[in-house]
Structure formats: structure tokens, C-alpha cells
User: What shape does this take?
Amino acid sequence: MKKVLSVLILMTFITFPAAAATFQGGVSEQGAGNSSRIVDKKTGEGVGGARIDLPKQHYTTKTDQNGFFELDTSINGPSIMSVKKENYKPFSMTINEKTIEAPIVVGIEKSNATDIALDSNMYHLGDDSFSDLSANAGEFRLQAIGPFYSKRFTLKNLNLAKPVYLVIGSIIGIDTAMARSMGQNKIPNAFASPPEVYFNGNKVSEIQLNGDGQRIKLPSNLIKKNQVNEITIKTGRNLMQTAYIDYDDIEFMNLIIENGD
Assistant: This one.
């Protein structure tokens, strides 16, 4: 969208001048240590060989055998950082230059047998038409694939007695009226309809705010166990533009199906 983009604020970023900040699935809390580190969320032990990507900077590094790492690249403004490690759920969060003034400790969670990592790539929805003054415009690095994204997958080994969630690791660019009221963008005279999430052809959610680790419950009556299911994410439209369709440019990363409380 021409006048969109926003800062991810659902996850609260806290900078501790003398200690690290621990980030775990949308929660930040004071940690300990003097170096940035990837740890197991449950045990607190360092996770060696975890891959860390900053797509905006085209930067990749890995943790050492004890889980420590350095971000040897400049960060100007909000940037999505992803963490990947075999047998762990893909994780992403938004960092900025203030976040890394002190070391950060990221807690990642082991995958369950019923978890499905649908897609760990970053995608850009919209029409590639947005203002350079839009919040996070500099974060966009990909060409838009169009106004929607779809993914087909088979759901196996589900326990339907427990809830099933779609988890969106990180999403930016949403320019709804609610996002504007929360200070997620500075565009005074425009706002967009929210992105919509569809499951097997039925709308199950609207995403009003930008953020990390957003969980969307999938209705059990729509789930096709041991059959092909489909998730579709549609971007919003600029509601102030009536002469033509002006799609809201958004980006998201990491889609996971979780089965449990």
C-alpha cells in the first residue's frame, strides 16, 4: 500500500544496560550474561549451531557450541531476525539498534510431534506501491507475490481434544485504523482494511496489529484430519482510495501449526 507500514510492537522490547533481555515467543524478560545467546526455552542451555538470519541485511551467522553469537552488521531501524535449528520451532522477532545495545538471549522451543512448520520463508504481499515515508518501508526487501498467499498441507497425528493454532512468527506493514491508534504508523489520513486469514475457504481471523508470535485458533469443525488443508492470507486495501484497488504492502515470516494449549 502507498502509505503503510508499521513497527512491530506486540512484542515489547526492553533494553537492559547491564544485563541481557530474554525473548521467548512474544514475551521479554530480564536475563543474565554479557553476550547474545540462543538457549533452549525449557532448559536454559545454549543451543549450538543455530542459524540466525537478518533478511534485510542479507546477513547470516551461526551460534557457537555454547549458543553464543554476534551480529556483525549494522542495524538501522526495525529488522526481522529469524532463528532456525533442527528439532526446534522456527522463531522470528523484530529487533532494532536499541534492542541490541545490550546482549539479547533468545529462548527457542523444541518442536512437538504434532507441530508442522508450514513455511519459514519471508513473503511480501501487496502491489509494491508504497511511500518511502511509510514506517518500515526500508524493511521491505522482496517483490510482492500479489495480494494473497496460500499453502496446502496435510494434518496428521492431531489430538483434536486440544486446540490447533496457526502461528505467524512475524508480520509487518499492517496499516489498520487500530494499528494507527496504537502508534504503529504515522500516516495521518489513510488506513487499510485488516489482512484476513482463511482456513479451508472460511475466514477465521482478521489481523489488526503488527507483531511477533501471533496465534490464530483454527475451528475444529473445519479441520480435515489426514487430508489436505489450506491456509490463505489476504492483505488489506487502502480504504481511502476508491479510484482503484490499492493493496496494503505487508511482509510476514514463519508459519507454524501448533496442536496444544
About this structure: The chain has two domains: 21-108, 116-259. DSSP finds one helix and 16 strands in the chain.
